[in-house]
Specification:
This is 2-oxoglutarate and iron-dependent oxygenase domain-containing protein. β8 and β9 form a beta hairpin. The chain is α+β, with helices and mostly antiparallel strands and 324 residues long. It has one domain: Jelly Rolls (Sandwich), CATH 2.60.120. It is built from 8 helices and 12 strands. The protein has an 8-stranded mixed beta sheet. Strands 6-11-8-9 form a 4-stranded antiparallel beta sheet, with no helix packed on it. The structure holds 2-oxoglutaric acid and fe (ii) ion. 2-oxoglutaric acid binds next to β5, β11 and β12.
Length: 324
């Protein structure tokens, strides 16, 4: 494998959420500008000062490691037929990137939103599953989900201001949104993968993704000139990226950048990789029609009108490889 290309200076910016939460308007504005510029230039940013304390991150990874260490028959009890893998376990070989024929080298678990009793959307969403063999797995993921949702919600406040919208533009759309926390296990590679990779090149579907998993190498983003560059945030930092829904809404002002997870060099095949992305989704009825402020003579409309649900259903059909 080639030596990793260093990330060009300033490509993936670091921001600290404490700046956005500060009362000093200059600190707030600097945060908004750096985050927004990074999302429009490369679609990625690294966030420090977020809401997921290290002990919670460590617990989420420890629980994830333990769950995937269960025998496959135990894990398969948590496959829920008929819901496209939106809750519980999805086995090795269930998902591929859009347009790919080879499946990704991963298995994963999905934990979703917990609905308020008076939210009618709750009745239409599958419930989260408890794992009897690992009783702390789901409670730990729930705490992680809630912390990431708080961080994501403030990042979207900053993005709304960057776009010239009201600060709370996203609030009614993401409250009770159908976000998903995905705990992923990329097992050790035991045979020649014949071109298959841990996660083939893809773009995320949702508004923004908040990724915990900084200790493990392998994540790469594709620059505008077609180079793959590794993203290596500091331990405990979150990697944030724009998904296709936010790209559509902003008519491409914010970029949903292609990324992938490459296989390690052969001498590290025995090492598994774990990562925990949080896909922040809005409520299904949110309109993804391009914002008027993002359409101009120089930037003609690139996307048709669609709702978040219409778009999600179209995309899910493209990525499921195996069981439904
Ligand atoms: O495992 C990672 O670091 C990233 C995974 C990813 O891009 C995804 O699941 O969409
Ligand atoms: Fe992704």
């Amino acid at each position: 494998m080639n030596a990793p290309v260093p990330v060009p200076e300033g490509l993936v910016s670091d921001v600290n959420l404490a700046d956005f939460r500060a009362s000093d308007p200059a600190r707030r504005q600097a945060f908004i500008q750096t985050l927004g510029d990074s999302f429009s230039r490369i679609g990625f940013a690294v966030v420090k000062g977020h809401d997921v304390p290290r002990p919670l991150q460590d617990a989420a990874f420890a629980e994830t490691r333990d769950f995937f260490g269960l025998p496959v028959e135990a894990k398969q009890k948590y496959i829920v037929p008929g819901i496209n893998g939106q809750r519980g376990y999805s086995g090795f070989g269930t998902e591929k990137a859009k347009g790919e024929t080879r499946v990704d080298l991963k298995e994963f678990w999905h934990h979703g939103q917990t609905y308020a009793a008076n939210d009618p959307l709750g009745a239409h969403q599958p419930p989260n599953l408890e794992v009897s063999e690992r009783p702390q797995f789901t409670p730990t993921l729930k705490a992680t989900f809630e912390a990431l949702e708080r961080t994501g919600s403030d990042l979207l406040r900053a993005i709304a201001l960057y776009l010239g919208l009201a600060e709370d533009y996203f609030v009614p759309h993401i409250q009770g949104g159908i976000s998903i926390l995905r705990a992923i296990h990329y097992p050790p590679i035991t045979t020649e993968p014949a071109g298959a990779v841990r996660a083939a090149a893809h773009e995320d579907i949702n508004l923004i993704t908040l990724l915990m998993g900084s200790s493990a190498q392998g994540l790469e983003v594709k620059t505008l000139d077609g180079q793959w560059v590794p993203v290596q945030p500091g331990h405990g930092d979150l990697t944030i990226n724009v998904g296709d829904m936010l790209q559509r809404l902003t008519n491409g002002v914010l970029r949903s950048t292609t990324h992938r997870v490459v296989n390690p060099p052969r001498e590290e095949w025995h090492q598994p990789r774990f990562s925990i992305p949080f896909f922040l989704h809005p409520r299904p009825e949110m309109s993804l029609n391009c914002l008027p402020g993002c359409v101009s003579a120089e930037r003609p409309r690139r996307f048709d009108n669609i709702t978040a649900d219409g778009y999600l259903q179209e995309r899910l059909r493209e990525i499921r490889a195996g069981q439904k």
